[in-house]
Amino acid sequence: MRAEIISVGTEILLGDILNTNAQFLAKELAAIGIDVYNQTVVGDNEERMLKAFKNAFEKCDLIVATGGLGPTPDDLTKETAAKFFEQELVVHEESWKHIESYFNKSGRIMEGSNAKQAYFPKDAVVLPNPNGTAPGAILKKDEKMIVVLPGPPKEMKPMFINHVVPYLQQYSDTILVSKVLRIFGIGEGVMAEEISDIINGQSNPTVAPYAKERDVTLRITAKARDEEEARKLIKPVEDKIRERLNDNIYGEDDVTLEEVVAKMLVSNKLTIATAESCTGGLIAATLINYPGISEVFMEGAVTYSNDSKMQRLGVKSDTLEKYGAVSEETAGEMAEGIAKKAGTRVGISTTGIAGPGGGSTDKPVGLVYMAIHIDGTTLVRKFNFQGSRERIRQRATMNALDWLRRELIKKFNN
Amino acid sequence: MRAEIISVGTEILLGDILNTNAQFLAKELAAIGIDVYNQTVVGDNEERMLKAFKNAFEKCDLIVATGGLGPTPDDLTKETAAKFFEQELVVHEESWKHIESYFNKSGRIMEGSNAKQAYFPKDAVVLPNPNGTAPGAILKKDEKMIVVLPGPPKEMKPMFINHVVPYLQQYSDTILVSKVLRIFGIGEGVMAEEISDIINGQSNPTVAPYAKERDVTLRITAKARDEEEARKLIKPVEDKIRERLNDNIYGEDDVTLEEVVAKMLVSNKLTIATAESCTGGLIAATLINYPGISEVFMEGAVTYSNDSKMQRLGVKSDTLEKYGAVSEETAGEMAEGIAKKAGTRVGISTTGIAGPGGGSTDKPVGLVYMAIHIDGTTLVRKFNFQGSRERIRQRATMNALDWLRRELIKKFNN
């Protein structure tokens, strides 16, 4: 089965909003083995929509359209799809009741304009919408199918997953299953080189590297008749990759680096405190994304000024004078100091130049010293990051967490 | 002039990457008065691309295509555009030299496959690419035009702004100029109601509200022959809106809430320290986004445990016992405590239940107390936020900054 995704809406056409729906649908359709042949964006205009439907059905059997199911006269998608198939709209009792009760619950009165959302072609499969007033629908004529879905992602996504996917699966005899490996500590290029023979030698599963904002991922995708068969195809390739990339792989699928580190801290009952200068609280804020962290996270200090480094962390004024605030020595005393003051087994610190100003030849923008103090031992490392102030602080934060992850592996897995 | 945006690439078609290029181009084309009629995504396939070009030119005079200018045989966009216009590709000396020197600089040797990036139709306008090897081009035949641009946003965007916009402006006699007002503290619905007469009464400029992740914006867009005329149309409408929404408007265009607050602190030489529990360092990290903040930001404390609230901030154990960590009283003592310990004029604190666990009937997930201590006076407020842990922490952070902004306005502008 071949599909075209049609996104309806002037606000997408004019670039006011980013078309995330199309990406979501493309991925989900591919995952159930439906080939996405084309994606189109059209404005809320009957003539253009009719033309888009006509073009799409020249090569495809399925159109998935999002947007234009609202109550205003601008919202035309369902009406246009029905017109294209020459089907009449009649009231759908269940939807009428749903919309009525939706309004009652929120203490409002159903307006005449909302009634239009309860009209569908007689033979359409109506898709319930627990998250809004507009039901979706599957319209059919001969071998062609138009699925109309609401535009807001929080209404569209669950409707697609819960109702459209099960319906479409009858038309597909293969599925795609993916597993994502998440990697930190080596760049996309180096990684791709290390496993180029695996990437090039594979057709099922395929192996595709992606450079993301925060990390690098490898997606292993298998095509099979069912999930079990797909998993069997993925396993040996995954094993080979893991052998090659080792600890650079920090997790799978949707896990985050902070979640991995936080879980290691919690499961080993390792209390931690943070002392941040250039990262300004980002390490603490990132770790605290993980709900269970309160068991081990005792305290964070954002010590931006020299005064606060001395008073809060006990950094010596000699050290600051002799080596400067951005130095190996200061980083080390910061990590030791926070662990001591907070009474934790781990202390982690950053001090650096996030820019845009404040750099020099000796200490350029992007220079960051970090220290990890762990059960009495202090380690210090020097990093050089590139980019904007925000980028440097983000990279420093992620690198601090990754370094801590590697130290914890050394400590507990050897 | 009417345009269609065609994004070429299997990775967009399959949903592997989000199509941000189309949004960028849609906005930029609208800004120079070119009507975007349609957006399409096609795979790297000659036949499909030819069909997409044909469809587009039925209604449009201009195609802006991105992607498929790389060195591999998969990269077909330029070749297909030339084929569509029946134009032959010949070597373009300047591009050849550019690609050669690009490789030399990075210490690599130009490969045969890269040579193809230096071939263009004889009459094409070649667009230089300082950020990569693939030049873009403007191909023309009769009244039709195809602009081909590289896919990577960091190559495409500057090429479009620096070379395509000036070229296309000769075909347009109107421009669109927008001004964005940024709003915090009232929802999109309430705001739209407050100014519904202004929104509905306007056609040039138009006034459009948008709910964003962090705030709400109003975009005022005027169509005119030049920027000056457009600004004159915007001014009276902006004034009317400002009168109505007042301090809910915190800034214009791309400014952020933290930048506004940080600038107020710096210009009034108001030193500040933060004491965060549920926000876990996010207020500090957000304020420190602003580079000049080091002049006034003295110290931040992430006091997650009761112990750290007592030892670091001097919160009384009585207070914690009697009212709990999440209480008006604790929030107040936290803000006072951090201001005292850090020796600052302002102290700001948060304590709350970010979830997902830890809520009760009395103190549900989303309950957050905040305090602002400013020159000896302590104010406390109670908030209830909805959503995920991350969302609650984000909303709490933004609301803390907005509250501080309003207190600073009271203090310094009255």
From TrEMBL, chains A, B:
Residue ranges of the MoaB/Mog domain? 4-171
What is the top-level taxon of the source organism? Bacteria
**Which InterPro entries does the record associate with it?**
CinA, CinA-like_C, CinA_C, CinA_KH, Competence-induced_CinA, MoaB/Mog-like_dom_sf, MoaB/Mog_dom
* Family (UniProt): Belongs to the CinA family.
PANTHER family given in the database record: NICOTINAMIDE-NUCLEOTIDE AMIDOHYDROLASE PNCC, NMN AMIDOHYDROLASE-LIKE PROTEIN YFAY
Q: What is the name of the protein in this document?
A: Putative competence-damage inducible protein
Which species? Clostridium fungisolvens
State which gene encodes it: cinA
